[in-house]
């Protein structure tokens, strides 16, 4: 898998964390760089760890599904992409405001925004791809976008939040289609 495709996967996966970072930036009063760093470190770390876990889990079943692995990768990426788009359109903001700097809240948000990366890691193991480069790129891209997202939220509010999740979903669907076409041609 080329570096450009990995970058697109990283951007697609990081859109949930980016959207939550924007929301976090809205709710943090007297925003400091340390606040943005804390959120970015959590989101980037979890987004990097989850594909590794998925990849390791996929290694145990890869030999059983090698003939249809490209279909599974396509299905998982398309499912995750469609789920992101659906949730961005249907999810209503909650009235209850949580402190995004609270460790428990931050942990829950980090896990929730990185679950999709678990499925992507599973897909990468089916495609027999080394996980080191994708994990590093996914973690770094998520860190950077989350860090930036906190400041965007502080400045611009909800304007970008839902749009970014839709873009991320479309990117993942597109990559799934690319993988399928490459294996069918």
What can you tell me about this protein's structure?
This protein is an all-alpha fold and 185 residues long. The chain is built from six helices and no strands. The protein has helices at residues 3-27, 33-59, 69-90, 103-126, 132-156, 161-184. α1 (3-27) packs across α2 (33-59), α1 (3-27) packs antiparallel against α6 (161-184) and α2 (33-59) packs parallel to α4 (103-126). The two termini are 16 Å apart.
Any descriptors?
mainly alpha
Give a brief description.
The protein is mostly helical and 185 residues long. It has helices spanning 3-27, 33-59, 69-90, 103-126, 132-156, 161-184. The protein has one domain (3-184).
The shape, in one word, is elongated
Run of helices and strands: HHHHHH
Largest sheet: none
Total count of strands: 0
Beta-strand content? under 5%
Q: Helix coverage percent of residues?
A: over 70%
Summed over residues and divided by their number, the pLDDT gives a mean of 84
* Structural class by helix and strand composition: mainly alpha
Radius of gyration: 16 Å
| Terminal-residue CA separation | 16 Å
Helix count, DSSP H or I runs of 4 or more residues: 6
> Which stretches of 5+ consecutive residues score pLDDT under 50?
none
Instruction: Give the number of domains.
Output: 1
């Amino acid at each position: 898998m080329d570096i450009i495709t990995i970058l697109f996967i990283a951007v697609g996966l990081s859109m949930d964390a980016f959207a939550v970072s924007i929301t976090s930036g809205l709710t943090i009063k007297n925003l400091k760089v340390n606040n943005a760093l804390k959120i970015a470190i959590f989101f980037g770390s979890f987004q990097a760890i989850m594909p590794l876990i998925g990849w390791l889990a996929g290694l145990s079943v890869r030999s059983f599904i090698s003939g249809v692995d490209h279909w599974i990768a396509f299905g998982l990426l398309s499912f995750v992409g469609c789920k992101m788009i659906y949730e961005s359109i249907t999810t209503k903001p909650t009235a209850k405001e949580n402190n995004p700097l609270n460790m428990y809240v931050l942990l829950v948000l980090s896990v929730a925004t990185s679950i999709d990366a678990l499925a992507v890691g599973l897909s990468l193991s089916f495609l027999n791809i080394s996980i080191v480069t994708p994990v590093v790129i996914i973690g770094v891209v998520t860190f950077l976008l989350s860090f930036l997202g906190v400041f965007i939220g502080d400045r611009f509010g909800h304007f970008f939040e839902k749009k970014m999740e839709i873009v991320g979903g479309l990117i993942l669907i597109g990559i799934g289609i690319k993988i399928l076409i490459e294996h069918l041609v």
